[in-house]
């Protein structure tokens, strides 16, 4: 990634990745991580830049860089709550979120904030869906996911204080969304995304995907980003 001066976020991210022992190639590198999890580097933000399909039905990968940045990508196919093979993605309404529709959520967190991206396939064509980050993991009961994650608890329910990922599918039933915030998630505070039957922050819950969103940890006194480079103090 050849970013000019002034692209400090990307630069520090790359530094994190190198320091963590992961090779980076133009934002499309997929590196196998222990435990068959897959970490995908995304260039220039999430959303449309999410890398290739890793092939599995369900997959998740994440990484905490030594500079405190956090990456994750999770994907799954939707299944009803009573499916023989349980999924981390549950559909409560198979008419509007068909079983086997796919979802992928990517997150990037740095000292500058958080970007959450979503890609979906196999939904109703040309259909408006609402979607947000919620506080709790999904369950058989749509309410299990709890309320919207809020940056300032009990504050305004709007896209600045929450993570809204409303999207409208194309003619093939595919959709994508991205939300960019200047803040980061509290550790363990954001655990799912819920798809709703309408946009704008309300609506019945059609489906849910359990995602372990990460938080940002500022660099410690001796980590890279605090004056120490790969070859010593810089
Ligand atoms: Cu919601």
Automatic annotation (TrEMBL):
Organism: Streptomyces fulvorobeus
Family (UniProt): Belongs to the Cu-Zn superoxide dismutase family.
Pfam family, one: Sod_Cu
Domain of life: Bacteria
Gene3D superfamilies cross-referenced by the UniProt entry: Superoxide dismutase, copper/zinc binding domain
UniProt lineage: Bacteria, Bacillati, Actinomycetota, Actinomycetes, Kitasatosporales
GO molecular-function terms, A-Z: metal ion binding
Domain Superoxide dismutase copper/zinc binding: 102-208
Descriptive protein name: Superoxide dismutase copper/zinc binding domain-containing protein
